[in-house]
Amino acid sequence: VELSKDSTEILLLCMSSKFLRSFAACAGAGIAALGISETGLIRKMVFAQEQPNEGRHKVLIIGGGTAGTTVANQISRKGQITEDKITIVEPSQHHYYQPMWTMVGAGMYQKEDSRRLTKDYLPSRSQWIQDSVQSLQPDENAVTLRSGRKLHYETLIVAPGLQLDWHKIPGLVDALEDASCPVASIYHYRHAEKAQRVLSGLTHGQAIFTVPVGGIKCGGAPQKIMWTWESSWAAAGTRPKIDIAFASPLLTMFHVRKYGAALDEMATARGVETLFGTELVAVDGPARRATFRDVKTGARAERAFDALHVTPPMSAPDFIKQSPLAAANGFVSVDRGTLQHARYPNVFAIGDAADLPTSKTAAAICGQAPVLVHNLHQHLAGRPLTAVYDGYTSCPILVGGGKLMLAEFKYNQEIAETFGAFGD
């Protein structure tokens, strides 16, 4: 697919037709950062101040990111549960449209463009508790907040997103915080603009882009930023002087065979060195050296760098990992079709924190949300859960030159392409 150079158009075209069809039913959380609210797909909502309520919350939602706000608004629009019965626990005053951080790192946007007020994306009469979760007690139908407040619920929706484990790579935090060190990451609001400074300032030497072991959000982002800058360096005439390496624990550029094969060919054609089967385990910022571990043998090797872009390890938040809701991998154990918890029928999960064998994207959330909302209402009515999520997700991979590859698939890596509906 060939795109215009307008970065807003690129972002819009990253959405599959299925994603767009369901988009009007989504909260539109954070997408207003693109300035497209006039399309009618996104509506601003007036926020009512939190009303104290220490009774049982009919619907308690943990998380006010894309997943949490989407579900809250879909429940509200369905109309069977009044907005005052919806409670959202979210500590952040701001909501971030995180996919834009790739564009920030590419110099197309300022980081402030990705930020809006959380209150603008919550149902107007819902309760917003601006606090974070300390622990979960599903046997008591309760959630304890960091402030010590304890909330009881009739139904619980777990949607807190992922935890970024920067500390698991020794030396990484210090390198990121050092403005003079050429280490950056688009995976955080604070660091995205540094990625632009580091990569735009590179005129020769070694650039390394990394992917961690384990699931990450927006699985295409680690190479989106790489391909974007590879294309920019080529246009600037500096590409012959820059060596690019892509380090991943996988044995291919992308885990779905069809797209991985095409991206592997692209890496070869464009002279990108692939360090497959490896993970970044340490960073020595002052020495400009990175240590990688072979995921099969455990052997370690150091590589010098002039620019290092890091995708940090990610996991479910600690309060989930330490709770009875967690599966063995730490994510919320839910039925992959109904999104209902395996042991606690009044608990559902959506988005990145759910233990679902599909890529963690906004497109996945738009596929999951209508299923969860329908099944939540079925549960409350004492009826069978009949809606089923098929694992649909999409990963738009910008490959530079105004082009992208849109990977669309369902569970078991089943290809589910819908983008062709837009024509050539």
Automatic annotation (TrEMBL):
Q: Mind telling me which GO cellular component terms the entry cites? A: mitochondrion
**InterPro entries named among the record's database cross-references:** FAD/NAD-bd_sf, FAD/NAD-binding_dom, Sulphide_quinone_reductase
Please name the SUPFAM superfamilies in this protein's record.
Answer: FAD/NAD(P)-binding domain (SSF51905)
- GO BP term, example: sulfide oxidation, using sulfide:quinone oxidoreductase
**What GO MF annotations does this protein's record show?**
FAD binding; sulfide:quinone oxidoreductase activity
Q: Which Pfam families match?
A: Pyr_redox_2
Where does the record place the FAD/NAD(P)-binding domain?
58-362
- Please, which domain of life does this record's source organism belong to? Eukaryota
Q: What is this protein called?
A: FAD/NAD(P)-binding domain-containing protein
Organism from which the protein derives: Cryptomonas curvata
